[in-house]
Design brief:
about 150 residues; alpha+beta; 5 strands; about 30% strand
Length: about 150
């Protein structure tokens, strides 16, 4: 059986390496504390698939957990949280976003923000006008294959 189709390799039907580059995985779920373990599991799967080491996978899970926790705390009741993972050649870029009524960003002086800046190679938070009323609050993380502690 010939397996020369675009985006696949002759090795067990797995995608070619260049097909995995710039891969985007998105998860939408209620902005509730009880939903955070799902995002953590997805972070683990994305990092493992990107061939990150065990320490870097653990860092990815902790960073995503903290970013989600900060947004859930600020989210409007009943809002949706969107988690987007983009796998690039040298990083996993993660954006976690939710709608809020205010434009207040997470405090960069909090312990949680310190955790994020320790685990990720880059961290930022933005607030932008949402479609309709309110704002969209987003936290962006960039995680490398090496743990940076």
């Amino acid at each position: 059986m010939d397996n020369d189709g675009a985006g696949s390799s002759p090795n067990h039907g797995m995608p070619a390496v260049d097909k995995l580059l710039d891969e985007v995985v998105e998860l939408r779920l209620p902005a509730e504390t009880g939903q955070i373990p799902l995002v953590r599991m997805l972070a683990q799967a994305v990092a493992a698939r990107a061939d990150y080491g065990l320490d870097s996978i653990a860092d990815a899970k902790m960073a995503v957990d903290e970013a989600c926790a900060q947004l859930v705390e600020l989210a409007d009741l009943g809002s949706t949280m969107t988690c987007r993972f983009r796998v690039a050649p040298d990083s996993i870029d993660i954006t976690v976003a939710t709608d809020v009524r205010h434009a207040r960003l997470p405090s960069e002086r909090s312990f949680g923000w310190h955790v994020l800046t320790t685990l990720a190679t880059a961290v930022s938070a933005t607030s932008s006008p949402a479609a309709g009323a309110g704002n969209t609050l987003a936290i962006r993380l960039s995680l490398g294959p090496e743990t940076i502690r």
